[in-house]
């Protein structure tokens, strides 16, 4: 049974889909006017793992994640750049897709854009006006009346009375209550981005788009709604209010899931604000240029999705180091199982028996952890335990020589981790090559210089000039390079201490 923490009820609840075997999931996506940074990617990754795990457990998931392509921030940016706003947003949707693809984040089944759902938005606003939940103000804006919405505040725990007292900024005179929010912003100038509606020309406010697009693609009621913890209020509170008042059906989404924030921290662990003006925004593409993308995935899943995630370069480097060990283990499994020389467990050293015990119990432990509110941190800890055992086994010559049967169950463990976490999904050769190139570049070192030294050693060996070969070997060792001699010549990688 899968259990999920529901922000709405503040409890961990069993997942009971409205239609048995099927899950509808809506996740709030990005406002597309800039590149995706590692904070955005955390939310994308959290729900990527949710979808992968639900699918692995046999549920048919319909995953909807929107792009907000009509927004003041996009309009302002487009004006600065002198391009039409929908051209700018289309460009950043393409950039976002490329960034998320590079991190192995699965694309949603439907990626709706508000600019393509204006009729649905207008119909919903008409229903809200018709039922007395919304009103057209003197300036042409349409507002949602929170006082006319029973249960408003149930997601965030806020009270309507407190919102009036708490309103410190000058209250918009067009609003009946300071907590009322815009469903539609009047756009009287014909050349500005806007659409005609029965209640006047304008464009949608932010919240209404998710209500309208969720209803279109998942129905008026569905199973799971997700997003970052910062969206609880006002965005998700307002989505619930709009959707439940417009349809008359409660609940809009049964379970509300929220991922914790990623914060940048300095070397001392103190939080640092990530902002354009400080020039310290860490974009996905910056990370993927420096390390294999799986290192970032590993860093994300190593923390529970609801917990805050402090990010630092050190944390990323640590994740890369762990990933190296994962691939060393993978290499051992491929080699030993591929060679196929086995022996009864009783005849093998302790390290082989230990690996066998951990590998045969792994999938059940992994599933139990993930079924309990997607506890990826616990699930990956079980995997690291297995990886350490495989690497002890790998260093044990006797175990390695005849350990194929002992190690074979580990193949399934790697397959499950690749399927749900997207980690250890590459061949070890491909991984180490990518890690090598990125590490060398990151450290400002020359791949060509190492290639030349390796060639020098090979030439010397061919000429039986052992002194010269040895000198090259010593130089390579000093630079932390491991050379592997194979039938097709020598390859090298940056040494990993397993
Ligand atoms: Zn939303």
What fold name stands as the CATH topology of the largest domain? Rossmann fold
Question: How is the largest sheet built, in terms of strand order?
Answer: 4-3-9-10
Q: What is the overall silhouette?
A: elongated
Q: How many domains, in number, for the residues?
A: 3
Number of DSSP helical runs? 18
CATH class label of the largest domain: Alpha Beta
Helix content: 40-55%
* Parts with pLDDT < 50 across at least 5 consecutive residues: none
What is the beta-strand fraction? 5-15%
Distinct ligands, ions and cofactors found in the model: zinc ion
Average pLDDT rating = 95
Q: Main beta sheet, described?
A: 4 strands, parallel
The termini sit apart by 37 Å
Count of distinct strands: 15
CATH level-two architecture of the largest domain: 3-Layer(aba) Sandwich
Structural class: alpha/beta
Task: Outline the structure in words.
With 498 residues, the protein is an alpha/beta fold. The protein folds into 3 domains: 3-260, HUPs (Rossmann fold); 265-429, Isoleucyl-tRNA Synthetase, Domain 1, CATH 1.10.730; 445-494, no CATH class. Helix content is 49%, strand content 14%. The protein is built from 18 helices and 15 strands. A 4-stranded parallel β-sheet has the order 4-3-9-10, with helices on both faces. A 4-stranded antiparallel β-sheet has the order 5-6-7-8. A 3-stranded mixed β-sheet has the order 12-11-13. Helix 10 (313-339) packs antiparallel against helix 16 (428-442) and helix 12 runs antiparallel to helix 15 (410-421). The chain is elongated, with a radius of gyration of 28 Å. The model has no long low-confidence stretch (mean pLDDT 95).
């Amino acid at each position: 049974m899968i259990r999920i923490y529901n922000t709405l009820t503040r409890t961990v609840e069993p997942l009971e889909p409205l239609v048995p075997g099927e899950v509808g999931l809506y996740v709030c996506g990005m406002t597309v006017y800039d590149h995706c940074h590692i904070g955005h990617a955390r939310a994308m990754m959290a729900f990527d793992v949710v979808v992968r795990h639900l699918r692995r457990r046999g549920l048919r998931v319909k995953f909807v994640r929107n792009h907000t392509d009509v927004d003041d921030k996009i309009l302002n940016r487009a004006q600065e750049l002198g391009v039409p706003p929908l051209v700018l947003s289309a460009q950043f949707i393409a950039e976002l897709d490329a960034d998320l693809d590079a991190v192995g984040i699965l694309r949603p089944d439907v990626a709706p854009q508000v600019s393509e759902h204006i009729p649905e938005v207008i119909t919903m606003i008409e229903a809200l006006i018709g039922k007395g939940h919304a009103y057209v103000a003197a300036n042409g804006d349409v507002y949602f009346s929170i006082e006319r919405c029973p249960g408003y505040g149930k997601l965030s725990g806020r009270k309507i009375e407190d919102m009036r007292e708490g309103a410190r900024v000058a209250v918009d005179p067009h609003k009946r209550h300071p907590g009322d929010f815009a469903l539609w912003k009047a756009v009287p100038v014909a050349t500005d981005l806007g659409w005609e509606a029965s209640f006047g020309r304008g464009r949608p406010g932010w919240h209404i788009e998710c209500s309208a697009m969720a209803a279109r693609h998942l129905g008026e009621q569905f199973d799971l709604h997700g997003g970052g913890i910062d969206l609880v209020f006002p965005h998700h509170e307002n989505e619930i209010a709009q959707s439940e008042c417009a349809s008359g059906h409660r609940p809009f989404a049964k379970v509300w899931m929220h991922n914790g924030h990623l914060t940048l921290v300095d070397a001392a662990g103190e939080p640092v604000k990530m902002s354009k003006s400080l020039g310290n925004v860490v974009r996905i593409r910056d990370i993927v240029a420096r390390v294999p993308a799986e290192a970032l995935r590993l860093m994300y899943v190593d923390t529970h999705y609801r917990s805050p995630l402090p990010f630092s370069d050190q944390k990323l480097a640590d994740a890369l180091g762990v990933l190296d060990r994962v691939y060393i283990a993978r290499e051992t499994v491929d080699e030993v199982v591929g060679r196929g020389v086995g022996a009864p467990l009783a005849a093998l050293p302790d390290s082989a028996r230990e690996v066998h015990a951990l590998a045969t119990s792994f999938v059940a432990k992994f599933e139990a952890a993930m079924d309990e509110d997607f506890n990826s941190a616990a699930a990956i800890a079980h995997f690291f335990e297995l990886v350490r055992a495989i690497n002890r086994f790998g260093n044990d010559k006797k175990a390695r020589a005849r350990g194929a049967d002992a190690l074979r169950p580990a193949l399934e463990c790697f397959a499950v981790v690749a399927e749900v976490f997207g980690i250890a999904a590459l061949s070890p050769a491909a991984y180490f090559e990518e890690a090598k190139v990125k590490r060398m570049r990151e450290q400002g070192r020359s791949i060509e210089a190492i290639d030349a030294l390796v060639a020098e050693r090979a030439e010397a060996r061919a000429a039986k000039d052992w002194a010269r070969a040895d000198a090259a070997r010593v130089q390579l060792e000093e630079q932390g390079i491991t050379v592997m001699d194979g039938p097709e010549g020598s390859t090298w990688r940056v040494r990993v201490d397993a």
